[in-house]
From TrEMBL:
<keyword id="KW-0472">Membrane</keyword>
<keyword id="KW-0408">Iron</keyword>
<keyword id="KW-0249">Electron transport</keyword>
<dbReference type="GO" id="GO:0020037">
    <property type="term" value="F:heme binding"/>
</dbReference>
<feature type="transmembrane region" description="Helical">
    <location>
        <begin position="61"/>
        <end position="86"/>
    </location>
</feature>
<dbReference type="Pfam" id="PF01292">
    <property type="entry name" value="Ni_hydr_CYTB"/>
</dbReference>
<dbReference type="GO" id="GO:0005886">
    <property type="term" value="C:plasma membrane"/>
</dbReference>
<protein>
    <submittedName>
        <fullName>Cytochrome b</fullName>
    </submittedName>
</protein>
<keyword id="KW-0479">Metal-binding</keyword>
<keyword id="KW-0812">Transmembrane</keyword>
<dbReference type="InterPro" id="IPR016174">
    <property type="entry name" value="Di-haem_cyt_TM"/>
</dbReference>
<keyword id="KW-0349">Heme</keyword>
<feature type="domain" description="Cytochrome b561 bacterial/Ni-hydrogenase">
    <location>
        <begin position="5"/>
        <end position="105"/>
    </location>
</feature>
<feature type="transmembrane region" description="Helical">
    <location>
        <begin position="20"/>
        <end position="41"/>
    </location>
</feature>
<keyword id="KW-1003">Cell membrane</keyword>
<dbReference type="InterPro" id="IPR052168">
    <property type="entry name" value="Cytochrome_b561_oxidase"/>
</dbReference>
<keyword id="KW-1133">Transmembrane helix</keyword>
Length: 107
């Protein structure tokens, strides 16, 4: 297989966007879930180490917004993961370069 050739600008930009969305989602998805539970009146156990108590005055409106955001970040993460895998396979199968090998640490 060939070394990774320079990518067209649109591919480089889309890869950076997907990576940033994945990074943001990794942080935002659990936070929105915790805030949704907090404002929904439910305590949240964090890996069995400690518990975040529920809000003293729950807010169904805020909890609903947080859970909607939680679901949106979940869908966004799935879409970005699929795009990431498709992009890696495109480089491996179609472009026949070392991009996938670099991603898994074999190049």
């Amino acid at each position: 297989m060939a070394d990774a050739a320079p990518m067209p600008a649109w591919q480089s930009l889309s890869a950076k966007i997907v990576h940033w969305i994945l990074l943001v989602s990794v942080l935002a998805m659990p936070l929105t879930g915790v805030f949704g539970s907090y404002f929904g009146g439910r305590a949240t156990s964090v890996f069995g180490v400690f518990t975040i108590p529920a809000a003293m005055e729950p807010s169904k409106a805020i909890a609903g917004v947080m859970f909607n955001m939680h679901g949106a970040f979940a869908m966004l993460t799935i879409v970005c993961l699929v795009l990431h895998v498709v992009g890696a396979l495109k480089h491996h199968v179609i472009d026949r370069d070392d991009t996938l090998k670099r991603m898994v640490g074999k190049a």
